[in-house]
Amino acid sequence: MRAERGLPMKVEWTDDLLIGIGIIDDQHKKLVERVKGFTKAVESRDMAKIEETINYLIGYTIQHFGAEELIMIRNGYDEFKSHREEHSSFINIIYDANKSLQKKELTQEKLEALQELFLQWIVNHIKIKDKRIGEQII
């Protein structure tokens, strides 16, 4: 994750995002690329790309969180319940974004807030919460 002076924060895949579980790391890499594309789409106001990313995230959240939660349950991960609550919260954000998209209520301000939320999710959830899964399970 890096910030450019005077510009919104940008996201790049770096090895410090690896948690050590191959399938999860592969999915995280794809998420980072999508968020990177979303950031560019918000900056250029490319609604087709914004819609594509939100639609991708609908499927991604269900598939990815399901895979992560299965790993946590099978391995008796001690913070499963709180981790799952974070996943549910993010799913609700994606749901709300999709509803706003359908109603054509995604203003530039809302899109920039969503972009910031996606970037913060990558930093706070993957680098901290998901990293702990890898540390405990591997």
Topology:
Elements: E1 2-3, E2 9-10, H1 22-44, H2 47-74, H3 80-102, H4 108-137
Antiparallel strand pairs: 1-2
Helix pairs in contact: 1-2, 1-4, 2-3
InterPro entries: Haemerythrin_Fe_BS (IPR016131), Hemerythrin (IPR050669), Hemerythrin-like (IPR012312), Hemerythrin-like_sf (IPR035938), Hemerythrin_metal-bd (IPR012827)
Organism: Heliobacterium mobile (Heliobacillus mobilis)
Keywords: Iron, Metal-binding
In short:
It contains 4 helices and 2 strands. The chain is mainly α. It has a single domain, classed as Four Helix Bundle (Hemerythrin (Met), subunit A) (Up-down Bundle), CATH 1.20.120.
Structural features, described:
This protein has a single domain (2-137), classed as Up-down Bundle (Four Helix Bundle (Hemerythrin (Met), subunit A)). With 138 residues, it is mainly α. It has a two-stranded antiparallel ribbon with strand order 1-2. The two termini are 25 Å apart. 75% of the residues lie in helices and 3% in strands. Strand 1 (2-3) and strand 2 form a beta hairpin. The chain has helices spanning 22-44, 47-74, 80-102, 108-137, and strands at 2-3, 9-10. It is built from four helices and two strands; from the N terminus they run ββαααα. Helix 1 packs antiparallel against helix 2, helix 1 packs antiparallel against helix 4 (108-137) and helix 2 (47-74) packs antiparallel against helix 3. Residues 21-133 form the Hemerythrin-like domain.
